[in-house]
Every structure is written in C-alpha cells, then in structure tokens.
Design brief:
This protein is 53% helix and 4% strand. With 331 residues, it is mainly alpha-helical. It has 2 domains: 104 residues, DNA polymerase, domain 1; 175 residues, Intergrase catalytic core (hpI Integrase, Chain A), CATH 1.10.443.10. Strands 1-2-3 form a 3-stranded antiparallel beta sheet.
C-alpha cells in the first residue's frame, strides 16, 4: 500500500495505485476525491527530498516544487476527482489552462508534463502513462559580439562618482567589473559565481575550482586581464571574507543582484540587446568556437554532461559559417 494512501485506493502488484480497481471494488458513496484519499503535501515533500538526495541542483528543485505545487492548487479547485480518467482529464485541462490563460511557452508545457509525470510515477500513481510530452522548441541562445563584451566590462571606466557612498563608488566598480570579466572569461553560471570562496582560486595558475550542477566539481580558467583585475580587487577590498564577492553586510551576493547589475551596465554601455549572465556564458562559448577551440574542450569548461547541450550553446553565427564555407572553395 502506498504510504500516503488512506487505503481506499487499491495497490496493484507493481506497487502502484490502481484507480480502476478502486472504482470497481468500492461502492459509489465511498469513492473519494484524490486529495482526500492521498496526502499530497507529504508526497510532494518526499519527492523533493528524493531529488535532493539524488544531487539535483537547488534551482532545479525550486522549479520542480513550483510546478508541482501549482498543479496541486489546480486540483484543489476540481470537485470530482475519484477516478483515473477524471484525474487524467483534469491534467489535460490544466495544460490547456496554462496555454490559454497563462500564455506560457511550449518549453514550459514540456517541463510541466515531464515533472508531473515523474512525480506521479514516484508516488506510485501511474495516471499519466498515456500522456506524451510535447516537442520542445529549439531557439538559438543570443550572444554578444567581442566589442559589445568589451564595452560592457568597461562601461564605468570613465565614470566619476561624487563620493564614496555613490552607487558606483570605486570599490563597487572594481568588484562589478571583475564579476563581468570572470563571468565572460570563465563561462560561469551565475549560480556558480555568487558562492565563490577565495580559497577556490589559484591566481598564479589562473584557475577556479567550481562546484557546479549536480554537485559536480570542475576547474575553469580565466584570462590574464581578469587575473590583473582580481589581484587589484583582493588587494584593495577593505574586509576579510571567505566569499570572493560580498555585499556591505559581508554576505555573498545574490543571483538577482548580479542580473540587475548586468542589466544596468548594459544600458550604460549602450547595448540594445537583452544582457544576462547566461548570455555572457553563451558568448564565452561562441567566441571560443569561432577561434578554433575544440567543442569537447568547451564542453569541459562549461561543465556539460552531454555534448549535445554544448552544441546548442555554441551555435555558430551565420557570418562565421559563410566565412568557413567560402574558405572551403568547393569545386
């Protein structure tokens, strides 16, 4: 018997709950709503704990929690959910609701379908077996060109602050410039950058030890210009902290702060494109590929488990493709 069941929904030999048997073996007056028969909050918590044990990233678990909780809230608004067919139909209505009312992307629909199916499978309710995840759309990630990256990193070099309490005081400018340079030259995720500690750096070797997605460790590189910035920053910062980048309270920065800072710098640099930490990561990979770096080396630097993921992130722009094509001199 499923540990979250109140013994009205029968268990099949495969240890999953057979809702059809519940319908045929129980009298109609004893049929109960699925949320009365099962403790969904406990099932959700058990599933998320399992994901944590399996070393899913914090951001992934946060996303899964949101998706499952949103579907749970939708179920709470349904009056009759006492059969497998009714639950299945409700899930399909939920997908339609997301498309029509919430106007979410096709990729989000795919994610909702996969996550909810995995959740039901984990708790032994094979209700959504017949549901197939829709195809994902494959849009190429945007990137900056080399000049735009330089303009972004150097956006405040000529900025003169009125006093040290200014939003762009010298110490903040130096810290933020290093953040931009490190994100680009190392291809870091913002979630990897904000918790960086000083003892993960080897400045002489120009390397950083990273704990990435799935608690996997890797070593990334940074260039000579970033090394110079880092040495200056560590020499001039007026506090001791285990974290490389901190706020005035001594705590490490949040991803949200870095995202907003980059948006602000892009505006000052006159860049019309949307600029995010992820776009800097993609720009790093794209520029390496354009300069002849092997894609498997890029895969290692980015920390991708599958080469197919790297190939998406490093899509060559059309101009580069034309140049390669023309140099081939086809007969």
């Amino acid at each position: 018997m499923n540990q979250h069941s109140n013994q009205s929904w029968k268990t099949s030999k495969s240890n999953s709950i057979d809702l059809k048997r519940f319908i045929t073996e129980e009298s109609p007056e004893f049929r109960r709503h699925i949320l009365e028969a099962f403790n969904f909050p406990d099932m959700i918590e058990d599933y998320l704990i399992e994901l944590e044990i399996r070393n899913y990233s914090h951001n992934t678990i946060k996303t899964y929690r949101s998706i499952i909780n949103n579907f749970y809230k939708f179920l709470q608004g349904e009056e009759e959910l006492n059969s497998e067919q009714l639950v299945l139909r409700t899930f399909k209505r939920y997908i339609r609701y997301l498309k029509r009312e919430k106007n979410v992307s096709q990729n989000y629909i795919y994610l909702v379908t996969v996550v909810v199916k995995k959740f039901f499978e984990f708790v032994g309710l094979d209700i959504l077996q017949e549901v197939k995840a829709p195809k994902r759309t494959k849009s190429l990630p945007k990137s900056l060109n080399e000049d735009e990256v330089k303009n972004l990193i150097n956006a405040l070099d000529d900025y003169e602050s009125v006093d040290n309490t200014s939003k762009y005081s010298e110490s903040l400018r130096l810290r933020n410039k290093l953040i931009l340079a490190l994100l680009y030259s190392s291809g870091l995720r913002v979630s990897e950058l904000v918790p960086l500690k000083t003892d993960s750096l080897d400045i002489n070797e120009r390397t950083v030890r990273i704990r990435g997605k799935g608690e996997k460790d890797r070593i990334v590189l940074f260039d000579q210009n970033t090394k110079v910035l880092m040495e200056e920053y560590l020499e001039k910062r007026s506090f001791n902290s285990e974290y490389l980048f901190t706020n005035r309270s001594g705590n490490h920065l949040t991803p949200r702060y870095v995202q907003m800072m980059i948006k602000d710098y892009a505006r000052i640099a006159g860049i019309k494109k949307k600029v995010t930490p992820h776009i800097l990561r993609h720009s790093f990979a794209t520029h390496l590929l354009k300069n002849g770096v092997d894609i498997r080396a890029i895969q290692q630097l980015l920390g991708h488990s599958n080469l197919s993921t790297t190939q998406i992130y490093t899509s060559v722009d059309m101009q580069t493709l034309k140049n390669v094509y023309d140099r081939a001199k086809l007969v």
